[in-house]
Amino acid sequence: MDFSNFISQALGIPSGQVSATLKLMGEGATIPFISRYRKEATGSLDEVQVAAVFNEAARLQEVEKRKEVILKSIEEQGALTEELRERIAGCYVLATLEDIYLPYRPKRRTRATIAREKGLEPLAGELARQTYVEAAKLAQKYVTCEVASVDEALEGARDIIAEWANENEAARRQIRSLFEKEASISATVVKGKDKEAEGAKYRDYFAFSGPLHSCPSHRLLALRRGEAEGILRVGIAPQQEKALNILEKLLVKNDSESAMHVKAAIADSYKRLLSPSIETEVAALSKAKADDEAIRVFAANLRQLLLSPPLGQKTVLAIDPGFRTGCKVVCLDAQGNLRHNDTIYPHASSQGEKVAAAKKIETMVEAYRIDTIAIGNGTAGRETEEFVKKLRLNRQVQVFVVSEDGASIYSASPVAREELPEYDVTVRGAVSIGRRLMDPLAELVKIDPKSIGVGQYQHDVNQQLLKRSLDQTVESCVNMVGVNLNTASKHLLAYVSGMGPQLAERVVSWRRENGQFASRKQLREVPRLGAKAFEQCAGFLRISNAQNPLDNSAVHPENYHVVEQMANDLGCTVSDLLQNEQLRKQLSPQKYVSKEVGLPTLLDIMKELAKPGLDPRRYAKVFEFAQHVHTLEDLQQEMILPGIVTNITGFGAFVDVGIKQDGLVHISQLTDAFVSNPGDVVKLHQHVQVRVIDVDIARKRIQLSMKGVSQ
Q1: pLDDT tens digits for range 214-231
Q2: Cα(138)–Cα(347) distance, integer angstroms
């Protein structure tokens, strides 16, 4: 089915652009390929817009699947009319769709079901008409051997009316609206849990209440986690009086005796059926919104982390620090290959061990001509950094502290076992620390993004949506930077547009058997890498020192002829065109517009000719913590300290100031101006100056501020 109009209305993107994007999607095109190489077709939609179209199309397809289930169920009951079929077919709001289906949904045996079995549905109908006939008189004729009295008959009829009220579409729509606009979310502590240690972290929510519509994502997810752990009881509800007024205005017609029974049935329906049902629905909806926000924050953090500045091709000595078990040390060449590994004990009580550790480091630095030392930021990280910086080395060596998040996950993974089968997890972890300094993107793609430690309640959100978002983020980053076809691992190649794990494996196998790729054209020799896959991936792959210099650029092979024509028109080679700015200034992109190649693509080509294959990331910079701060006890209020942003959440940013616990810069402390999104003020791994405003040693919490501190 064509979803163009629905997606257009939902996203505010013209229908024609949506339709073109969906067509390309249906042909197997990826988000990076469409946004980079099909701008003419989509009207230059950017990657975020293209991804939004993809995701909305996926949601609508799920709605379509649900419609099929509903239609089949109603049809099997013999209740599917043409009018009902059309209503279901035209509905794309899941809540409304479920409201339509509710009267036909197979039910368990309820109070209304029992009343119907006793033959009381006609009485319910008579009461619902709200005539001025005496209710007892209406009910008398329904007194039977199964219905002992008039009161029992009226009670059964009210049960049926209560179910009708619950299934009334207008009633559900208006109560749902009331919940969404005016409901409060509240929490209380489960009896006895306030005395238990695991309940302490939820202390702020033991007697909590606030408007649901303004409850931030992180708070709602914290409440739901506390509920899941059995610490909190969480409820969502508007004022009951308002809800009953809405229902009575809708369903009560007059002041007759029958109307009073309808009113009683409505109150029962709201308390027993409608309110719990809508609360569950609104709770799920608010949770979904909180999930979306948490996933957005996680994806933004992941993007920043993956695009962290690389050190580049330098020889690295990497250290995974430790106290009791010593520090694992590895030496890597400029390509990240392991050349040597050892263990040192710089923190041992024995002076001899310390001297031996210093000697080993000095020897390895000289023997492997080390350019850079990378030290993990985990246990003993600061102490190891100090030890290394005091060494008198014969070479000029930079020292970096590197985040260890996810290194232990990688070291025990099948990926690590495949890459370093002869070594144990300690060596693999140290190798990962060194490689992630050299190229964070290439190394971090080997780790499940959820294990990298830059999320917010990532284990509490919808895991399917989280995976899709994070996969799209990784794919986006990999293709934005570009991938060296001759050096990339299969794990990095797998994220290249149109590639995937199987083709990536085949590319690496071809490279192993035939040597390095000399041109992009040779990709066609890889088994099962057909024309479509080549179209999708070729522009994102780079070949250094290729015979055709465009093979090391983001110019797609389908447009090489355009650049060649430009060079011919100027009487020069393509290489001359890449190297000579004055030649490029003589070109007019409009001259080369054709039916196949539009101006947006030509402008991209001109930009690429100016900087072919240039890595869009910056380069890694050395950072130093305050030398006198190592533990919580070293912190004093009003201290000004250097720090590194380690995580960004909806409520602020966490900053490493060189001790085991990261400190929180609350959103209100980021700047003097109002901040709605911390990501607008700080970036992951940004070097910042912070002021200590509070230290809670018992709870191991540090409150920091960036206000009034020169950055």
Answers
A1: 999 999 999 999 999 999
A2: 91
The two tokens of residue 389 are: 């910086």
Kindly provide the b/e burial profile for residues 44-67, where b requires at least 16 CB atoms within 10 angstroms of the residue's own CB: bbebebbbbbbbbbebbeeeeeeb
Closest CA to 13 of 5, 1, 25, 24: 5
User: From CA 440, how far away is CA 407, in angstroms rounded?
Assistant: 12
Contact 208, 220 (CB under 8 A): no
Both tokens assigned to 224:
């739901």
The model's pLDDT over 241-300, given as tens digits with 9 standing for 90+, comes to 999 999 999 999 999 999 999 999 999 999 999 999 999 999 999 999 999 999 999 999
For residue 686, is pLDDT > 80?
yes
Q: Residue 374 and residue 399: Cα distance in Å, rounded?
A: 6
CA distances from 178 to 115, 174, 281, 305, 604 (A): 31, 6, 13, 41, 50
CA distance 653 to 666: 7
Last residue of a domain, one of 386, 403, 438: 438
Give the residue-averaged pLDDT of 432-460. Answer: 88
* CATH for 198: 1.10.3500.10
Q: Pairing between strand 372-376 and 316-320?
A: parallel
- What CATH code is carried by the domain that includes residue 598? 1.10.150.310
Cβ-based neighbours of 655, under 8 Å, separated by 6 or more:
643, 644, 645, 646, 662, 663, 664, 665, 688, 690, 704
Residue 654, Cβ neighbours under 10 Å: how many? 20
Is 356 in the same domain as 231? no
DSSP 390: T
Query: What pLDDT does 452 receive?
Result: 81
pLDDT of residue 182: 96
The strands making up 338-344's β-sheet, listed across from edge to edge, are 338-344, 327-332, 316-320, 372-376, 398-402
Spatial distance between the Cα atoms of 692 and 664, rounded to a whole number of angstroms = 10
Are 492 and 509 a contacting pair, CB within 8 Å?
Answer: no
The backbone torsions φ and ψ at residue 330, rounded to the nearest 5 degrees and listed phi first, read -130, 150
Give the whole-angstrom CA distance, residue 652 versus residue 667: 4
Q: Determine the Cα–Cα distance for residues 551 and 544; give it in Å rounded to an integer.
A: 8
Residue spans of beta strands (DSSP E) within 509-617 = 541-542
Q: From 384, 418, 438, give the residue that closes a domain.
A: 438
pLDDT of residue 615: 82
pLDDT of residue 349: 92
User: 663 with 703: CB under 8 angstroms?
Assistant: yes
Distance between CA 390 and CA 113 in Å, rounded? 82
Question: Does residue 76 form part of some domain?
Answer: yes
Range of the domain at 598: 500-610
Question: For residue 323, what is the domain's CATH number?
Answer: 3.30.420.140
| Alpha-carbon dihedral sign for residues 107, 113, 114, 118 | negative
For the chain, the domain total comes to: 5
Domain shared by 194 and 45, yes or no: no
**Which tens digit of pLDDT belongs to each residue from 308-320?**
999 989 999 999 9
Whether the Cβ atoms of residue 13 and residue 2 lie closer than 8 Å to each other: no
The region that residue 654 occupies, defined by phi over 0 for left and psi between -120 and 50 for alpha, beta otherwise, is: beta
Report the DSSP pairing between strands 663-666 and 640-649: unpaired
Tell me: do 290 and 321 sit in the same domain. Answer: no
Burial of 27 (0-12, 13-18, 19+ CB in 10 A): exposed
Q: How confident is the model at residue 705 (pLDDT cuts 50, 70, 90)?
A: very high
Residue 332 maps to a domain: yes
What is the average per-residue pLDDT within 380-387? 93
